[in-house]
Protein: Glutathione S-transferase domain
Organism: Paraburkholderia graminis
Amino acid sequence: MSLELYYWDGLQGRGEFVRLALEEAGADYVEVARGEPSEGLGTGAMMAVMKSRDEPYPPFAPPFLKDGDLVIAQTANILFYLGPRLNLAPSVESLRYVANGLQLTIADVVTEAHDTHHPLAASLYYEDQKDAAKTRAHDFIDNRIPKFMKYFERVLKQNPAGDTFMVGDSLTYVDLSMFQLIDGLLYAFPRALKRFGEQYPRLAALHAAVMERPNIAAYLQSERRIEHNEACIFRRYPELDKAAA
Amino acid sequence: MSLELYYWDGLQGRGEFVRLALEEAGADYVEVARGEPSEGLGTGAMMAVMKSRDEPYPPFAPPFLKDGDLVIAQTANILFYLGPRLNLAPSVESLRYVANGLQLTIADVVTEAHDTHHPLAASLYYEDQKDAAKTRAHDFIDNRIPKFMKYFERVLKQNPAGDTFMVGDSLTYVDLSMFQLIDGLLYAFPRALKRFGEQYPRLAALHAAVMERPNIAAYLQSERRIEHNEACIFRRYPELDKAAA
């Protein structure tokens, strides 16, 4: 039976981190919210799972994954579950916790990237919190991006198996997520990241290497890869971008 | 060998979610940052691990746990690792992913609770972002707390094993973390949560039940339990609190 991925249609969002793992592995999966209501799919089918009053373990929000009867919520959790099944987790069990720790740190950056355009409330329009967004975005550029990226660069550098992968000596879902995080930041903050390749050579190499993997390259060219856009986490608002201090 | 918990001294913070699991289980653990430098402990010993240039898998931030050579970062990840070892995880393996999904949703609320007093930048003083904090805190009270708490109440209600525990039919670390989340919110936003017991009777019962467990009760009375305070995630700033809309 196919895996069912549930995520909002029309944007990459947090679903993209899961999608990249499924695509790299060539997994058989259904993108539920993007399907046809006449086939029992679509956003309504997704909302039905979330709002179900008899689902034993309902998810709070997308993305979530259904594998048979099991409903798995939260991006990092989905990847922790899928990793070994897709051959995208470290084979050494203890390193799976290292991978999960890194994935959760990536998730923290994703949340902070979202909050650059919505620092006051997700329920308010961006236009009604632009000044606050500018303050938060500039702090993100000056303080947070460098702090996180120096850390991730150091993780590559200190990896005892070499600086090609985030954990261990082969590709894991963490590398795919790291690619996506960098890609989103490059899209949203081109001025801030102008010197990214110089500053973080190992991360830049990882980003390039993931993009060239055959399955990922094919995916990125496909219609399944929705373009970065301003309904998403990573938004290109020129007024929030600036050269890093 | 003892487990080593690394977290900032002087506050409950995210370390408290791990601490409650260790205390409930009566585990043998060392609170590294609170120890004596003369014994190789203290905040300096914690910083040394974080800043180490030869640690194979350095953590980004506390809390992190050392179990022998393995360094495990991120609260939910630490609990996912410790859960089975402390007999605080579901015995059914698939339910461990349900537990982790819930734990990560609790972690999302914790981050949002933090951002009520620091919506613009962690690097700025609270006093320099008070107006923004008020907007964010009131949105948190009116929209986010109800959304999350209705969800968690529904998780209890829909649990096929009964509404006493968040997952399955016995205590897990998720229940302990749920206690701590509620406890922090009750401390920070007493006006907003005035009707908590009426609105969320199952969550209120869980909070009371955890507090009465012998090991937790003893811990809460001990000097190891640092009081809620305004250096922490959950801060009682009366100007941010209000009755829910």
